[in-house]
Amino acid sequence: MNYRHAYHAGNFADVLKHSVLFALIQALQAKETPFALIDTHAGSGCYALDSEEAGKTGEYRNGIARLLFPDLQPGQATNHPLPPLLRHWLDAILALPGNEHGLKLYPGSPLQAARAMRSTDSAHLCELHPDEAALLRELFHHDHRVHVHNRNGYEALKALLPPQEKRGLVLIDPPYEAQEAEYRLIEAALKTALQRWPTGIYAIWYPIKLRSQVQPFLRWLQRCGARRVLRAELLVHPDDSPLRLNGSGMVVLNAPWNLDQLLREPLRAMARLTSQEHAAEWRLDWLVREDEAASGATK
Ligand code: SAM
């Protein structure tokens, strides 16, 4: 348990993850009935970008900062308007108290979700590290919609699913400290979760170093029995080196039918703005379409 998200908050992987989360919450809010969010690996909820940790890696500079201040990047100055979803997501980050005079704080998934949620929606946040969980609890102590659990998120799914609301989203965003083992944990947790709540939306973030490391997991997801499985990826380096994070992806099980349309232009814009020495690449495709789902359930 060495991972601390404070070193990575707002990096290019967070940009992908959190804009997909924002799109999913918007899609869920198209209906008036409340929804539940279950965040299995919540982190501490909010990150100061002038902290020692963020300063050590400077990762946010190649992530959120590039979207907010493209003119600061050589060769990136642009007058392309941003797609509305991305604009609204960035506006929500800048509207966070503490960011009145510029980008000082980067909200993690729990805080981004809580700020987008309505009074009737609810969130269950699981965080195993006691210090991170304590920060999370402090952040939401006044918010009756939000429940913080200092426990293993994979195990908590058994107790939390299906949620009372019967509609909503599970976000699975683990640290992948032991990569192969983490994939197996996700698969086991999803297998149980899908049995308990087959209609829930499940969004799973994954790192991309070597492409071949991810393929078995993606194949498993293709056969897990979910209807409509959408994959969104953003790669800022070629996916051929195991030594660094080259990009990342989000797979969404039981995805809203129009999620690909919501994400296409935002992904194109993210790739344009996060390009480093190579042009960033993006990918958005259905791993399972509705009519294919029936034939492939995992034994
Ligand atoms: N989802 C957060 C966000 O987007 O802002 C970031 C989460 S960070 C990538 C992963 C977090 O999972 C870390 O804070 C780590 O302490 C926590 N963690 C690791 N293993 C866990 C487990 N089995 N259950 C719950 N939390 C865990």
Summarize the structure in words.
It is built from 11 helices and 10 strands. It has 299 residues and is α/β, with parallel strands linked by helices. S-adenosylmethionine (SAM) binds next to helix 7.
Task: Please render the helix and strand layout as text.
Blueprint: H1 12-28, E1 36-39, E2 46-48, H2 52-57, H3 64-68, H4 84-94, E3 105-107, H5 109-116, E4 122-126, H6 130-139, E5 146-149, H7 153-160, E6 168-172, H8 179-196, E7 201-208, H9 211-222, E8 229-235, E9 247-253, H10 259-274, E10 281-288, H11 290-293
Parallel strand pairs: 1-4, 1-6, 4-5, 6-7
Antiparallel strand pairs: 2-3, 7-9, 8-9, 8-10
Helix pairs in contact: 1-5, 1-10, 7-8, 8-9
This protein binds S-adenosylmethionine.
What's the CATH architecture name?
3-Layer(aba) Sandwich
What's the number of extended β-strand segments? 10
CATH names the topology as Rossmann fold
* Overall number of domains: 1
Shape, principal axes of CA atoms: globular
Largest sheet: 8 strands, mixed
Order of adjacent strands in the largest pleated sheet = 5-4-1-6-7-9-8-10
For the CA atoms, what is the radius of gyration? Answer: 18 Å
The proportion of residues in beta strands is 15-25%
Binding site for S-adenosyl-L-methionine: 18, 41, 109, 127, 152-153, 173
EC number: 2.1.1.266
Keywords: Methyltransferase, RNA-binding, rRNA processing, S-adenosyl-L-methionine, Transferase
Family: Belongs to the RlmJ family.
Sum up the structure in keywords.
two-stranded antiparallel ribbon; Ribosomal RNA large subunit methyltransferase J; transferase; binds S-adenosylmethionine; EC 2.1.1.266; Rossmann fold; 18% strand; methyltransferase; 299 residues; alpha/beta; 8-stranded mixed sheet; RlmJ
